[in-house]
Write a structure and sequence with these properties.
binds nicotinamide-adenine-dinucleotide; globular; alpha/beta; binds magnesium ion; DXP_reductoisomerase_N; 1-deoxy-D-xylulose 5-phosphate reductoisomerase; magnesium; seven-stranded parallel sheet; manganese; Rna Polymerase Sigma Factor, Chain: A; NADP
Length: 386
């Protein structure tokens, strides 16, 4: 039996992970399950999967969690410190699936245990950058990329040496607004942006896919996971999301990983790594698909990938500022406070102000994140529509 912890168990990645665990119940012992504020959902999952501990980040919901787990023998805890305490418990695999910078501290705690971390929470790696990769090296931890593109690249890299890589191509669906004009984009509503053509995901990443900031964050994520140099990392729009990413080697061979648009495929590859396991996902029907198409990204209509590239080149605090400002902007868009096109504008404005010094430790990263949120909120006051 292997021991597993799932940070962000109530989310989309959490649900896909637990679906695979449910199908192989005898192989896994669940150590910890965590959630933000969905106490009743966490109670339901804890009663099914019997973890040692269930943690609710929002302490105001702890009473509800305690009540729901009374008499089960499962510990209930609340707040940020409890989240890190749970992430630090011994386990064979930690799935890092909290959304945004909120997942940074518990993910770092899991890394400091020197174990295996399946990383879906790209914002944590984007913000922490060197601080996280240095901790991975220092504590002998293993990061398994769970993001579908990075998982694809990780698989393609098994066939060659990183020194022999000529380029890495991240594919992007282009999102629901791929063919929209700028004028149409200006009036795009949250409901329209939340309808992703290929993937069923949490709200924040779905909006990031519509703005292409998801690909911008993934560009920085790839730079951190696969040290080939920024100039070798490319972005290609591929609306069918069948090819999840590609690696080109110096001899002219390009390897790609293909699969259905179902996160259970890359998650299964992390759960079973370095072996393989069954999933219930339907095999690819390439004849049914008929055609795969490819386009260059349009950074006029979707400036987010350019902002991310510039932040990656600037290094230091810039990626953390980009990611924090984007979190503020996406929340404001979802709350109806700003237009869709204001999301990237707000991120650009926040990056334009003086950047804090490069973070050297987790506390520095959290401080940069906090400062960037305050700045973005100030900019929001001048951007806010109606
Ligand atoms: P989601 O919104 O569905 O779930 C997020 C999870 O994080 C929930 O369990 C929620 O309770 C928890 N959470 C949110 N805020 C928190 C806070 N302040 N403190 C503690 N916990 C908190 O998101 P998701 O789509 O599952 O995405 C999770 C991560 O995985 C994101 O970083 C996303 O970019 C990445 N990712 C997701 C997909 C996907 O298909 N959903 C694909 C690739 C990468
Ligand atoms: Mg992805």
């Amino acid at each position: 039996m292997r021991a597993i912890t799932i940070l962000g168990a109530t989310g989309s990645i959490g649900a896909s992970t637990l679906d695979l665990i449910r199908r192989n119940r005898a192989e896994w012992r669940v150590v910890a399950l965590t959630a933000h504020s969905q106490a009743s959902e966490l109670v339901r999952l804890a009663r099914e999967f019997r973890p040692e501990i269930a943690v609710i980040a929002d302490e105001s919901r702890l009473a509800e969690l305690r009540e729901g787990l009374a008499g089960t023998g499962i510990e209930a805890a609340g707040g940020g410190q409890a989240l890190c305490e749970a992430a630090g418990r011994a386990s064979d695999l930690t799935v890092s699936a909290i959304v945004g910078a909120a997942g940074l501290a518990p993910t770092m705690t899991a890394i400091e245990q020197g174990g295996v971390v399946a990383l879906a929470n790209k914002e944590a790696l984007v913000s922490a950058g060197d601080v996280m990769t240095a901790a991975v090296a220092r504590f002998g931890a293993t990061l398994l990329p769970t993001d579908s593109e990075h998982n694809a690249i990780f698989q393609c890299l098994q066939a060659g040496r990183i020194e022999d890589v000529r380029s890495i191509t991240l594919t992007a669906s282009g999102g629901p607004f791929r063919e929209w004009t700028w004028d149409q984009l200006r009036t795009a509503t949250p409901a329209q942006a939340l309808k992703h053509p290929n993937w069923n995901m949490g709200a924040k990443i779905t909006i990031d896919s519509a703005t292409m900031m998801n690909k911008g964050l993934e560009y920085i994520e790839a730079h951190r996971l696969f040290p080939v140099g920024l100039e070798k990392i490319r972005i290609l729009v591929h609306p069918q999301s069948v090819i999840h990413s590609m690696v080109e080697y110096r001899d002219g061979s390009t390897l790609a990983q293909l699969g259905p648009s179902d996160m259970r495929v890359p998650i299964a590859s992390c759960l079973a790594w370095p072996a393989r396991m069954d999933t219930p996902c339907a095999p690819l029907d390439l004849v049914g698909l008929g055609t795969l198409s490819f386009f260059a990204p349009d950074e006029e209509r979707f400036p987010a990938t350019r902002l991310a590239r510039e932040a990656a080149q600037a290094g230091g605090a810039a990626p953390a500022v980009l990611s924090a400002a984007n979190e503020v902007a996406v929340a404001a868009f979802l709350a109806g406070q700003i237009a869709f096109t204001d999301i990237s504008a707000l991120v650009a404005q926040t990056l334009d102000s003086d950047l804090p010094p490069a973070p050297q430790c987790l506390d520095d990263v959290l401080a940069v994140d906090a400062v960037a949120r305050v700045r973005a909120a100030e900019m929001l006051e001048t951007t806010r529509v109606a």
